[in-house]
Design a protein that fits this description.
It is a single chain. The protein has about 100 residues and is mainly alpha-helical. It is about 80% helix and about 0% strand. The protein is elongated. The N and C termini lie far apart (about 45 Å).
């Protein structure tokens, strides 16, 4: 039982780390693809927006990691961690795009 909970937490951690990396990468690409005119003093700064997005999408990344870790029936821990990271990376991307579009950033 403890071993299953440990693997579940490891998959959730792998999904969260991959999700945070995907959010940061998408925000960096978003700022370079869609130029934003200078908004000095008009709303939150970039670090604040990044922290808000990461806090909002943390559960999505964790769920993606858990689902990805439970997906492969065969294979070892490395395969399960790879799928957990892949699903943790892919799950928050549409939500991140929606949030960035919605806030007009």
């Amino acid at each position: 039982m403890k071993k299953k909970i440990g693997y579940l937490l490891l998959n959730a951690l792998a999904g969260w780390v991959a999700g945070v990396l995907s959010i940061l990468a998408l925000c960096w690409v978003w700022l370079h693809v869609f130029p934003v005119e200078e908004r000095a003093g008009q709303g939150a700064a970039l670090p604040t927006i990044l922290w808000m997005i990461i806090l909002i999408l943390t559960p999505v990344s964790i769920i993606g990691g858990i689902i990805g870790g439970r997906l492969p029936r065969e294979g070892g821990t490395r395969d399960k961690l790879a799928y957990a990271a892949l699903f943790g990376f892919l799950f928050p991307l549409p939500f991140t795009c929606f949030i960035l579009y919605y806030i007009g950033f």
